[in-house]
Amino acid sequence: MEHTTTEDIKKHVRSYILVFVALLALTVITVGVSYLHLSVVPAVILALMIASIKGALVASYFMHLISEKKLVYFTLVLTAVFLITLVALPLLGYHDNIE
Amino acid sequence: MQNVATAPHHGEAAHHEERASFWRTYVFSVDHKVIGIQYMMTGLIFLFLGFTLMMLMRWQIAYPTKSIPGEWFTLLPGAIALISIIVGLISKRKLTILFGVLFGGIAWLVWSMVSDETLFPQGIMLPELYNSFGAMHGTIMVFLGVVPIAVGGFGNYVVPLQVGAPDMAFPKLNMMSYWSYFAGGIVMLSSFFIPGGAANSGWTSYPPLSDIATTGQTVWLFGMVFLITSSLLGSVNFIVTIVQLRAKGLTFMRLPFFVWAQLVTSFLLLLAFPPLEAAAVLQLMDRLAGTSFFLPSGLVISGQVLDVSGGGSPLLWQHLFWFLAHPEVYVLILPAMGIIAEVIANNTRKPLWGYRSLVFAAVFLGFMSFIVWAHHMFMTGMGTVISTFFQTTTMIISIPSVIILSALIISLWGGSIRFTVPMLFAVAFLPMFGIGGLTGLPLGLAPTDIHLHDTYYVIGHFHYVVAPGTIFALFAGIYYWYPKATGRLMNTTLGKIHFWGSLACMNGVFFPMLIQGLAGVSRRLYDGGAQYAHAQNVLQWNEVMSVSAWLLAIFQLPFIFNFFWSLKKGKAVESDNPWGATTLEWQTPTPPPHGNFLKVPEVFRGPYEYSVPNAPKDFLAQNTP
Amino acid sequence: MQIPYTVAARPDTGLHNSKLGIWLFLASEVMLFGALFSSYILLRVAAPEWPHGSLLLNVPLAFLNTVILIGSSVTMVMSWASLMMKDFQKYRRYMGLTILCGFGFLIVKGFEYTAKFSHGIFPSEDLFYATYFTLTGLHGLHVIGGIIVNTYFWGPGSRMWKTEPERFTNRVEVAGLYWHFVDLVWIFLFPTLYLL
Hints:
By secondary structure, chain B is mostly helical.
């Protein structure tokens, strides 16, 4: 672990509490939004956006990704590219067929 | 640190060691070299089992109406068993004897199946059994044979040495990877003995057939979970080792190409296997919990509508499976290319041509391998947009392959070529891989694939790449690194017989497949096409191929004998670096002790500094100041 | 024989071995759950009809579970922070809480599952339930795995604090990364299955 002083850790702890509160709020929001009974497409987009923000908070602060090293970013970006491929291409194939 | 003079580790070597218990030192070891040899020997046994299954299939293909002479097919593994046991007894190596006993197990398995009237009524293989053998031949060769040898065996043994590390980054995890592989192998083997037999839906396990197949398919799925776990743990270990444990001065662009190949391979395994694991979970749910992930609605089996919820998609399996299985074929070839690169540089006494191109090509190849998978699915009714996408990426991916092959070929130019046995295999690899690669092109283009998909042409194509391609590279690696691991050289004459015989026979097996495939003969025909209209003009090739396959088996005997005999009786090496190689694994004692290097190495130059002008010798080791 | 960079970071990558190792492992887990999400998307898109999750599943319970899991993520990172501040007792308390939250999550899940089973609803019912049980089931297995690892580090594994405190802190951090990932997956699973 890098040289982190007790002061740095205390700052981290403060950010953990803030993130926790934000996550709780976002969870409430995401449930609340579902009661709006939006149609599928906006509902999915909104739900995914909120989930992504929550995910980004967990990853950036609890998992310290915000101050992580390049090599880790590189691995995750590569993974994201392949995951998007795995989701997108079969979907494209579903829509684009010979019938 | 272990006493150098006492410990040649061989197939979990046979010597009684005075100090740590036999089990700790050679069976449950965390030393990457022991684990590498464990993978190697286990992989070789599975390779031979997969080969045996194919030999039985080839009788069926060539002589579909003739009773199988079971004794002859038992004789071959039996002969190997006997040779190993006798050599083991003479040289007092317990594990050589064990290897022989395991081969005896294969012989017994063959005999018990061939003499079973329910499996071979009147000596003729049942179609269901043929399907089982086909599915298991593929599964065993790819997942239990080639990859464990190429990555688990060579990767584990050589990579930490070549990066100048004392071991892998996570030695205990490494051991767990091996035992997970071993468990997976046992699970897979056990499927032969259950009612309904082993998996029989192809190594590709397409649903709906695989969803409703016999119990062996469930066992296959569990086996795959063990194997995938082993692979994932291993790939994490390789990447961390290569990135984190490189010796001082060993920058990425000074890494031997073998290490680059293993690095890319590990990323492929890491990111491509999980979707297959997901698919296996889904198929297990279908088979065990009655779900319909892969079962469409209204499926009728033997006149009855299947009582499931339906709504599933067989194509979903294909996408998930091929998302892994395409990168998997690059997992099969990349370590092989790595081995060939090492052997060629060493035996031409000059640097590899185009090192940077090789590296960039390997990395680009790895990346592209994730976006070509649906070229295995051109016949599933896909539209022109997605078909064009995959045809384009498939054509593009041939470019890095060509770059790598070309660089290796050009590396021969102007070299002081020594035709050692490893070099024979390496040189032969080049045109063989060339044929394999070129025959892939019409498969990657949808219009021609319409004609060739699921024919013997495909089988010929991929076997050219894997058999006289990868397996030749594995042989090259064994002959090349054997002296480092054992302190002895394998016999050259036996090696040459092994080489020439294998080269001729492999072409005899696989070239006619291209002919039959072009004629339209489908794959997976249990009678070799005897009742199939398209096959009638090319049926005569069946016998040619089968005889070549059986001869190929005979030509492996000198290799197996050579391997075990040379452990004790091979010519002892006169130095730690008998081939005069530059890379770090040759700058250790022979065999390398626990911890590998007597002094932490420091690297001063690239990996292939051969024939450097004004140098005292015709090579400069990487760690010579 | 010492493997370099097990504790200290390698200068050029800035990482110690297990940190890189766990991120690589998590990348593979992203592909695993990602493949399952991708399957869900494909199956749902192709389905002529698909029920709204909130009609068939217990949203309040899942909301509770989400709070529990997020809370456990906080306690997990706090347990690491306690070690960084050299407070072993605080570490034990926070890690203990994390483990309890993990069990809490499983209990709620168990309650959800048994409620469904007692109504005769199993994975074979239809694709919706097949997906629900499989995705949450595999996630649950990962929670169990995390609980086992965390319990080891709370219990017998914590002996390493006395002999190699920095290495132990790293291990807890690495275990934490895995645990946060399990939370992350749930953050996406919850709206996907229950709210859409």
